[in-house]
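[Q] Does anyone have a clean structure-token version of this?
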Amino acid sequence: MKISIALATFNEEKNLKNCLESIKDLAGEIVVVDGGSSDKTVKIAQDYGARVIVTSNPPIFHINKQKAIDACSSDWILQLDADERVTPELAKEIRVTIEQSSNRAINGFWIPRKNWFLGRFLTKGGQYPDYTLRLYRQGKGHLPCKSVHEQAEVTGKVDYLKNPLIHMADVNFNQYLKRWNRYNDLLADEIREKLTNRTAIGKIIDFYFYNCIKPGWWFILTYFRHKGFVDGWQGFVFSLFSSLKFPVAYYKYLRGKR
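[A] Here you go.
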């Protein structure tokens, strides 16, 4: 069975080559939907034989991911981000699994993901195994395209793979802050949609929820309940900024109302 690799990109020249290099022996087809990159992203994709579709760059990146999925033609689709790497062990497991899948009623597979954060892979804090639903049969999986952190929806049964996908998301703090701030903008939009037409009492409750209750609960959950402290100072920074996203997004929501 052939495998299509689906990616959405925007100015990913620093990441894309390593991603495509990791799947060059796995892919029967590579489809890249690019959001109008101004760097060498498109050329790098074409150098690896990818079919590139250039379009706009929507805030919900999953819209372009779904366009890439829709353009794939193989029996199975593996959807990736440019900062992800498929290890040889995972590639072998994928090949063996889909070859055996003709005798199983399985339409999709969750893949564990290892997240690189400021010099190390996070092992706790709810960050490993960070399961993501990325491998599915043609026509059986799609993205709702409503939230930046949403998972694919697969029709039928799904199973789990064992070997991890490598996610080189946050190699330095500046890069992390850019991504963190972008996600906060999207969270602010979600808050704005949720809190429309709230009463005065409701607004007071919302203020305390997003500025006190939610961040405090999230820090306790990730740093203590899920043992983020095991990952040293990186675990602390991750838990802290993961909790701060709520008051920051709420502030952005209030600014947008002015």
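[Q] Thanks! Anything notable?
[A] Residues 19 and 128 are 20 Å apart (CA to CA).
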